[in-house]
Every structure is written in structure tokens, then in C-alpha cells.
Amino acid sequence: MRAAAGGRGPHAAISMTAATERPTRPRQMYIGGQWCDAADGSTMVSLDPATEEPIGTVPVAAQADVDRAVAAAATAAPEWGDRPWPERAAALRALAERIDAAAEELAALDTADAGLPINGSRGDIRSAANEIRYFAGLGGEAKGATLPSTPAQLAMSQREPYGVVGRIVPFNHPFKFAAGKCAAPLMAGNAVVLKPAEHTSLSALRFAELATGLLPPGVLNVVTGPGRVGAALVEHPQVERIAFTGSVPTGRAVLRGAADHIKHVTLELGGKNPMIVFPDADPRRAAAGAVAGMNLRRSMGQSCQSNSRVLVHRSIRETFLAELVEQVNALTVGDPHDEATDLGPLAFREHYERVTRYVALGVEQGARLVAGGGRPAGLDRGHYLQPTVFADVTRDMTIATEEIFGPVMAVLDWQDEDEMVELANAVDYGLTANIWTDDLHRAHRTARRLQAGTVWVNGTGRKPLGTPFGGYKHSGLGTESSLEELLSYTRLKSVVVNLRQ
What we know:
- The chain is built from 16 helices and 24 strands.
- By secondary structure, it is α/β, with parallel strands linked by helices.
- It has two domains: 9-269 and 477-492, 3-Layer(aba) Sandwich (Aldehyde Dehydrogenase, Chain A, domain 1); 274-464, 3-Layer(aba) Sandwich (Aldehyde Dehydrogenase, Chain A, domain 2), CATH 3.40.309.10.
- The strands form seven sheets. A seven-stranded mixed β-sheet has the order 16-17-18-14-13-20-21, with helices on both faces.
């Protein structure tokens, strides 16, 4: 394991300027087209996870602020929803162009606020702009149908926006989720109240600034603060549609909060995703796939789709494990602004402490630590953790069953294919899975048996734009990143016209 050289890297000045010195004051909330402080003046500090030093403050919204944001969205939604879809699409495409123009600044901002390696942050910005363009191009597909009619009646259906949508996004890809996950509800004609993660709110506020002048006042609103701000949004009676990305416990709370008003809820939750390595797989390629599929270079393994359980056939276990350890140890951990860095710090202290507790628990329960497991040498500040690999993991160990959401892989072995499939499915999650084999029949047979919303064969987690993404079991409700997501932000109305005889 290599630690990057000291120093803040070439983009530090950009990130600090973006976070603390913008003249339009993005560290205020954005409600109804106006920048404003919290009603009671409360703020919280944003900390750079690489240095643990402050880089700015953001408001802590009160109930009154959530009420104002929802009221602004409710006022703006009818006019926005009545616009012809090509006009909404043009506004979103223009927004994507602004994101492209500010890409380097936005990437540096997420790197400073969330610790993402600069190259991973750049990928997130590109992804967000592409997702916005994708949904802009789908606008005409939010349509109804003419139904079989009679001489006396003409029947048709049409799609209408909900009005006000609450969108709550997590800390692991701040701008990608803040911008990209607003695209579908906006294109469908809704107004959005966006609530970013409390530890990584800066780029969501910058997103609102970029949208100013393109989206009418009130169509996009951003409220910041801890979980209670999201709860107030979920429970607000004028918010008829909620989408949440985050942990399973918080997803349950969202469902409970939305229940009284029978809201339409989408949940994209956690995963404990299996990567299955068959005996005919090339161990070196499969090990490279395991590293890539963990999203270590993109988000330090802080990804719901990371293949954190590696199920390798016993006949190639030692060869695969040697390759995996070699490739993991070659990764560079250090300053996320440095172009040469592979892994930066975890996003905030509480999460860092949570992940390190899992590492300690793995050792305590008898798993064999074969790579990483501690703080990299020379990095005494910041929430840094070496990428970690455990071998000799058994199915009853906590690290084999619970989502860690960090750079920790658990390697289990198997001999019988039926038992392997049962093991792969023996967790509460069902988000993704990954199969490595050169046998096409085996790949299809196994994919059919796995309880997961997305299955890759010899892949690394990438997928074509527009591929539906969603989970089975505790991994969520509904699908995103696809036509299905756009349609989920509309309601279907049937209209029956009685004809004169």
C-alpha cells in the first residue's frame, strides 16, 4: 500500500474558493429563487475529510424553511408542468452545458467536501451532465395512449406530474446525485425540493446556482441540514412524491414518515453484493474486476453497488487471493487532490469510525486479514483507511452479512454451485451481483438464479446509459436511471369522453 506525497495538490485553491468565497453566497439555502439563511440562523460546519479542517458553513433548515421551500415548489409547479416538454428539455440541456463549463470547479469542490479522488470527482460531474441530457431526451415518452373505444365512448390516458417532489440524496457522490437525480422529476414537470447529505452539501448549493435563470424560481429548491430536515420534507402533506437514496434504516424511516399521506416512494438503498468467481475464470482479470467493482478509485468503496462479498471457487482461491492482494496493495492512498491518488479519505469521522469498527470485528470473529486494515503510514490526519481484504470469511461473520460501505472486501470460498447460489442470496440485500466465467451457459444460468436487480457478467459495475437500476429485498423499491424512473414521476389519468348518438 502506498501513501501519496504530502501537500494539498494543484486544485486546492480552486476547491477552497468554490467552497468559501463565491460572491453569490452558495452557503445559503436556495428557496423560491432566492438565497437565504435558516429561519433561526442555525448553521453547521463543513469539514474537509482529508485535513479535518473547516471549509465552510451551511444553514441548518428549520421546519419553517422546509415549509417555505415546499410552498415555493407548489407555486412554481403548475406553470412548469404546463410547459411543452421540449421547453423543459431545452432548459435541462442548457443546465448540462453549464455543468460542463464548471466541471473542474465542481470536481474540486466535491473532492474538498467529500474526499473523493479528483479523477473520480471528474467522472461524477460528467455522469451528472449525461444523466440530465438523457432525461431531457426522454421527455416525449411521458405519454398516454388511446384505448379501445366504442361508438358511444372515446377513452384515453395521459400522464401528469405529481407537483412537488422531495429528493433526498447521500454523501458518497454529492454532485452526481444532487444534479443527476433531479433530472427525471424536473423533466416530468415537477418542482423539486432537494435535501443533500448534511456532511456534503456544498456542491448541491452550487448546482442551484448553476440552475438560476434556467429554471423558474421555485422549480428547484435546496434545503440543508441533518436528518430531521429530510424527515420534515418526507412528512410534509404537500409533498406527494418522495425519492430517497441511502441506508436501509433511514429508508425504513422514510417509508414510515410517508405512510400517513400514502405517498409514492422510491428507495435506492444498500447492498452486500456478491462477486462470483467460477473455476474457469482468469484469476488476474477477476481480481482486477473485484478492485474495479468495489469502486475504490471512485469513492473508496462507499458505494451501494460495490462487490464487497467475493465468492471464489476453492480450486483457484489461493491464486485469486494472491492476485487480489497484489493489486490492492499497489493502490495509492493519500491527498485526494493529487492526480496520482487512487483512494482519498472516507467522507466524515462518524462514518470512518463505523467502518474501522467493522474491520476490528472481522479480526475478532476470526477472519484472516490479508491486506490493509489500518491507517496508511504518514497520514496522521484525515479519515484515511487502507483498502482492506479479509480471507477465510465464513457466512456467519458480520463482515459477510452487513453492509460496511467502505474499502473492505470479504473473500469466501465455495465448492458446490447450488450451495454457492444459496450463499449469494443469503443476505437481506439484493442490489447487484457479478459473475466471472468464460462459460456462457453457466453465466446465464447463474444470473437467472441470483436475487439482484442488476447482474454483470465479467464486468466492473459500468452499464449503458438508460439501464434500469434498482434492488430486490431490502435494497429498495422502484428503479432509476431509466425510462421507468421518468414515468414514476408522473401519475396516469384516464379520460373517457361520451359521444353523442
